[in-house]
Amino acid sequence: MRHYLYKTTCQANGKYYIGVHSEKRPTDGYIGCGIVSMGTAISLKKRGVKSALIDSVVKYGYSSFKKEIIGFFDNKGDAYKAEADIVNEDLLRNKMCLNVRIGGIGGVVPSTTKPVSLVDCKQNKIISFKSQSECQAFIGVLNMSGKSRLCKYRYVLAEKAEPIRLFDRNGESVEFLDIFSCRFILGLSIDKVRRMLSNKMVSVGKGRVVGGDRYWSNVNLISKSRY
Which residues of 191-226 are buried (b: 16+ CB within 10 A; e: fewer)? Predict the structure, then answer.
């Protein structure tokens, strides 16, 4: 992965945007604010993401923007330091600048500065981040706006999680922060878990789960209870 500081310019009016990006391949098409194509710009705008760059791309078209690399860096932290030297309050007052906040702290869309908490379904634990930008960098996505489940259902926004409680044969509860934790930790398909939660018979391996009167011999789980 390479980290760099870039400048994206609208060839129709000369307005520009400066940002930091980390990419795994040199042709990902990223030009800023989560935009990698005309389609992503339109999608972000429909989701209500506020950004002068997004509005400009929707107006003039993705092909009207040219990105140039200002410099490459060994890590993202150094790239942000360089961005902070350029994108300051004086630059933000320039009408030709499309940035909406000072550089050096990651992200440019106001909505990405809010704290975010995710449930890691593989670990059955909550992970908290100071901002959406920090969260996106951690899980490796360009933009998570408008999404509740990410990375093939491994992560889910904490406020969108579906916590469940199952019981073993002794009546002891087994709690999961989200229904997909059963998929990752116990190897149960979501369809089977949902059928368990609705008290319907489910065939699982050599055993069966039927409401609260039988158990799955391999995992000792029975019954259900949402909370």
Answer: ebbbbbbeeeebebeebebbeeeebbeebebbbbee
Write the CB contacts of 140 (distance below 8 Å, at least 6 apart in sequence). Answer: 151
Contact 148, 135 (CB under 8 A): no
Class of residue 46 by CB neighbours under 10 A (exposed 0-12, middle 13-18, buried 19+): exposed
Structure tokens at 170: 């002794």
pLDDT per residue over 169-215, tens digit each?
666 777 889 989 888 888 878 887 777 777 644 444 433 333 333 33
Helices (H), the chain: 38-46, 52-60, 76-86, 89-92, 132-139, 180-181, 190-197
Give the start-end residues of each E strand in 92-221.
116-120, 125-129, 149-150, 155-157, 164-167, 173-176, 202-204, 207-209
| Tens of pLDDT, residues 74-122 | 988 899 999 999 999 899 999 999 998 888 865 444 455 678 899 999 9
Q: Report the amino acid identity of residue 27.
A: T
Neighbours of 53 (CB within 10 A): 26
